[in-house]
Amino acid sequence: MYKREFEAILRTKKAPKSTFLYGMCSYQNNLLSQQLLTLLNAGNEEKVIMYYDEYAFNSAKNFLAQSSLFGDRNILIIKTDKTIPTKELESLIGLCAKNDSSYFIYQYFGEDKKATPLTKLFDKSKEAVFVRLFKAEFNEAMQLLQNHAQSIGLMIDRYALQHLYMIHMEDLALCINECENS
Question: For residue 49, what is the enclosing H or E element?
Answer without folding.
Answer: strand 47-51
